[in-house]
Amino acid sequence: MNAPERFFLPDIQASADHRQQAIDKVGVKGLRYPLALFDAQGRVQHTVAEVSLAVGLPPEVKGTHMSRFVELLEKKRPALTGERLLGMLDEMLRRLDADSGEIELAFPYFVSKEAPVSGVESLLDYDVRLRAEKRPGRPAGLLMTVVAPVTSLCPCSKKISDYGAHNQRSHITLEVRLRSEMSPDALLRLAEEEASCEVFGLLKRPDEKWVTERAYDNPKFVEDLVRDIALRLKREPRIAEWTVKSENFESIHNHSAYAEISGSNGENK
């Protein structure tokens, strides 16, 4: 095949479609790419993200240009911030001539934590999800989801037992729409501070004693967890809308306890 023949290859995706069905989202998902982003101390953290990219497709267009999504990811960029992710979204919409779309990154995020008594340091991993989105009739927005593993101790068990109380691992999920830049660390700390006790990657015996007694002195139902965190989220000016969920993986039942609250802080952005 000579050069002129390659140049005139037909672009079927750009042809007209007569079914008159707009598509809300079309794109690629399940891509895994290296990711560099800033932590709360301004240091660059390297991780791997599972990436999804999509745009809205008008009813008269047959298909989108899938290769352009990957080209967007292949472009060399500095460490990610919320503002830069929104910039990527704008670039994607322009390259694909789209009015709506989203970029979502899901990745493990690592925080170095000191044990409460011994001070020994260890890394703890958290699930974080960032999404930049543009919807018809709305400005572009940035959303963040974090999942914090914590300990919860049952107040009822403590009250009725002569000694001991059952506790469980809990997953607290915070989903927020941001008004301004906010690190995952800030949301994670908010969740951990309202739990019966936070968890650590490495503990020595004095630390184990401390976390056991901390949870015993701070019992909380699943309802307490979401209510206390909701009150904190309501006072956070960087957040426009929020949802807090808690799933407690019961230690004395073969099911979970679950609670969820959603709200907004003033006028939605």
Largest sheet: 9 strands, antiparallel
Q: Which segments are poorly predicted (pLDDT under 50) over 5 or more consecutive residues?
A: none
Number of strands: 9
* CATH hierarchy class name: Alpha Beta
Structural class: alpha+beta
User: Number of DSSP helices?
Assistant: 7
Tag the structure with descriptive keywords.
269 residues, Urate Oxidase, alpha+beta, 9-stranded antiparallel sheet
Could you outline the blueprint of secondary structure elements for this entry?
Layout: H1 3-7, E1 23-38, E2 44-57, H2 66-74, H3 82-95, E3 101-114, E4 121-134, E5 141-153, H4 155-160, E6 167-178, H5 184-193, E7 197-198, H6 205-216, H7 222-234, E8 239-249, E9 256-264
Antiparallel strand pairs: 1-2, 2-3, 3-4, 4-5, 5-6, 5-7, 6-8, 8-9
Describe the structure.
Strands 1, 2, 3, 4, 5, 6, 7, 8 and 9 form a nine-stranded antiparallel beta sheet that branches. The protein is built from seven helices and nine strands; from the N terminus they run αββααβββαβαβααββ. The protein has a single domain (23-264), classed as Urate Oxidase (Roll). The chain is elongated, with a radius of gyration of 23 Å. The mean pLDDT is 93. The chain has helices at residues 3-7, 66-74, 82-95, 155-160, 184-193, 205-216, 222-234; strands at residues 23-38, 44-57, 101-114, 121-134, 141-153, 167-178, 197-198, 239-249, 256-264. With 269 residues, the chain is an alpha+beta fold. Helices cover 26% and strands 39% of the residues.
